[in-house]
Amino acid sequence: MKTLSCRDVGVDCDFVAQGQTEQEVMEKAAQHARQDHGFADIPPELQAKVKAAIHDKETTAA
Questions:
Q1: Does residue 9 contact residue 53 with C-beta atoms inside 8 Å?
Q2: 61 in a domain, yes or no?
Q3: With 90 as the cut, is the pLDDT of residue 37 above it?
Q4: Cα 5 to chain center, whole Å?
Q5: What is the pTM of this model?
Q6: pLDDT for 46-57, tens place per residue?
Q7: Are the beta carbons of 3 and 25 closer than 8 angstroms?
């Protein structure tokens, strides 16, 4: 599972995107940025920052 939060890229927002792939997380993050942060387009430099901040979610052993 991949995960990304707005806070991972320096935004004071509690949104967290999760997905099985980096692409899935990127799509969810882009949709959130448009809806909640007013981005019409995500600039390439922000896309790169977001992509670099995606990480594997740590799982806890049951």
A1: yes
A2: no
A3: yes
A4: 5
A5: 0.87
A6: 999 999 999 998
A7: yes
